[in-house]
Amino acid sequence: MSEKKIVVVGVGNILLSDEGLGVKAVQELEKRGVPENVSLYDAGTSLHLVMSSFEGYDKMIIVDAIQGGSAPGSIYRFTLKQLEEGQAPKLNYMFSLHEIDVPRTLALEKLVSRLPEEVVFLGMEPEKVEPGLDLSPTVQEKLEDLIALIEKEFS
Q: Which end of the chain is more exposed for a tag (fewer CB within 10 A), N or C?
């Protein structure tokens, strides 16, 4: 059996500080390098426009800022199945300020194409979502933990 084809998709707006953490995580992984079976993708705020690019992957890892009401820097992990079945953490506002939120994008995409068999969400509670290019100190400090969790998903 061949290795799973995995895509890591960073979502977010890098102009709004912590809202860009998904994109910044993917940029950091790009610097470090990833296994051959892993592709990295910066979707910015337009995941809905690029979803068809992910057909043919076995696993998709979506990395984004997630407002779930926990302390800033808290890390979340759940699957699309858990989200659909209401077993994901109770989220106040999911995947913040994108044109169409991520769960709605995936629901629409399932109607027209084949999503990867496994869809995993990894995200972090933002501290500040306001104009600025830098992550808040809290989120920056926890970014390494988030990247380590992303890398664990490769095996």
A: N
